[in-house]
Design a protein that fits this description.
Layout: H1 2-20, H2 22-39, H3 45-59
Length: 68
Amino acid sequence: MRRLTALAGTAAAARTYVRRNPDKVNRMAAKAAQFVDKRTKGKYHHQIDNAVRKVHGYTGKPPHRGTH
C-alpha cells in the first residue's frame, strides 16, 4: 500500500510540473523521441510519434515545427 501512495504522490508531482512547464516538457519529449528513434533506426517511429502526440495533448500545446 505504501508503494501505491508513493506512486500517487509522484504522479501528482509530475502533473503539476507538466502544468507549470509545458514548453519544457514538449521540448524534452521531442528530444527524447529523436534520440530513441535514431537509436532504433526508425523501427518504432509510429509508436514514438504517438507517444509524443500524447505528451503534447497533456500539455495543451501543439508540437512546434521541426520537432518530432
